[in-house]
Write a structure and sequence with these properties.
Blueprint: E1 3-7, H1 10-23, H2 36-43, E2 57-61, E3 64-70, E4 77-82, H3 90-100, E5 103-104, E6 109-116, H4 120-128, E7 132-143, E8 158-161, H5 168-178, H6 189-194, E9 206-210, E10 216-224, E11 230-238, H7 247-260, E12 266-268, H8 274-277, E13 281-292
Parallel strand pairs: 4-6, 11-12
Antiparallel strand pairs: 1-2, 2-3, 3-4, 5-6, 6-13, 7-12, 7-13, 8-9, 9-10, 10-11
Helix pairs in contact: 1-2
Length: 293
Amino acid sequence: MKITLRRYRLLSDFERVSQFMRLNFKKYQLGGNVPQPFWEYAHTHPYFNHSLTHRFGIWEENEEIVGVACYEMDVGECYFSTKEGYDFLKQEMVEYAETELSKRSADQHSLDVRVYDYEEYLIKLLVQKGYHKVYSEPIRVYNYGSGFSTRLLPEGFTFITLENENDLRKINDVLWRGFNHGDEPDDDLDSRLLMQSGPHFRKDLTAIIKAPNGEYACFAGMWVDGVNDFAYLEPLATDPRYRSLGLATVAVTELMKRTEQLGATYCFGGAPDFYPKIGFETACHREMWSKAW
């Protein structure tokens, strides 16, 4: 059958691409670059550029999606995802991304391509096209078969979920400070509502560690895609004033236990050294390959 290329339609294609990513997933790897929770979380992030999603590329065969080229937050960077057996599309995807997803200034284009170290064919293509690897980070997973250590909160701190309490200002404060934006949070509470708007966002899997004075000291969100047996942690932030107390460890451990009851057998974490300290292991590496022209 003939493979056709068209632009992404935000309102009608979101769930179709979500399902493609679920079915395209391979255990312990971010199948083809984009797992469904990563895709959905990006769409609800305050920094996500909704106005240019029409630049995403969708490749279809007999009305089935077999490839997607998209950015995480904005033009200038991109990811590719292809159905197994359709790696040959990657060359066309790179060319498409250079035209539609690159960052443009008066006299220069630039593009960062996110790649996983097992994508040998794509890496070879990027080298041939003049890209250079500028960054690499580990993708870490926690195998639930390892069990869960007992984690206790300091006296006066409590674990709750958004089902118990959902104070947008306190959420904004802990995320602002926890991601090191400064001591004085902005007043963008709508962005916190946006982050709870995803169709698969779950309040019962969004945890808060509450300090004795009522402040939110730590915030953690967990996702499941409903098809595969993994949990996906995003975001995780601890207010700097409450770090080194083990709060994030308690939050993550409790959420992993909850997703185990939902059928998950492992969890994807992040790159910081915090993760291996609590038992996460490296499954692969994510790289960034860049080019300017």
